[in-house]
Design a protein that fits this description.
155 residues; mainly alpha; 3 strands; 3-stranded antiparallel beta sheet
């Protein structure tokens, strides 16, 4: 049976304190995530910049995309994305081809070398995550994933 009773309004002082704790933890998480992105970029290639790593991450999830779409998705301006794509090309991590659905546009795609290096890095990241969360109860892991999804939907 599902409890449909209305939730009690939180005590303002308790709620404000809890929100302050959330802000602090999110700030810490964001700093660690930024540092982690730098570390993973260098692990793939010493010259790979964090923005390039984010492009590879996005292309790995979505497949080939137009440069403008990548700029929008990553919150970057077109000039910065152009420089990032050129750097990725110089590292042999992406190629550009004509978009068959729009002959004026180009699709950016990961090269097999980029896939190989990215996937090897991802395997290490997953192993670390697995090792760290393996001590948690499975219900805690599911709850954590649900809370992360809830946070991600806020933006």
């Amino acid at each position: 049976m599902i409890d449909t009773a209305p939730l009690a309004a939180p005590d303002n002082a308790d709620f404000d304190g809890a929100i302050a704790d959330v802000e602090k933890q999110l700030g810490t998480l964001l700093i660690r995530a930024r540092n982690s992105i730098r570390t993973h970029a260098v692990a793939i290639h010493p010259a790979l910049q964090p923005q390039g790593f984010m492009v590879l991450t996005t292309l790995s999830r979505t497949g080939p995309r137009q440069q403008g779409w990548l700029a929008h998705e990553l919150g970057s301006d077109k000039a910065m994305m152009s420089r990032t794509i050129k750097q990725l090309e110089s590292l042999n991590f992406v190629t550009r081809t004509i978009d068959p659905s729009d002959g004026r546009a180009q699709l950016v795609s990961m090269t097999p070398e980029a896939h190989s290096r990215y996937d090897a890095n991802l395997a290490q990241v997953r192993q670390v995550l697995h090792d760290r969360l393996s001590e948690w109860d499975i219900d805690e892991v599911h709850r954590f994933a649900g809370l992360l999804a809830k946070i991600a939907s806020l933006s």
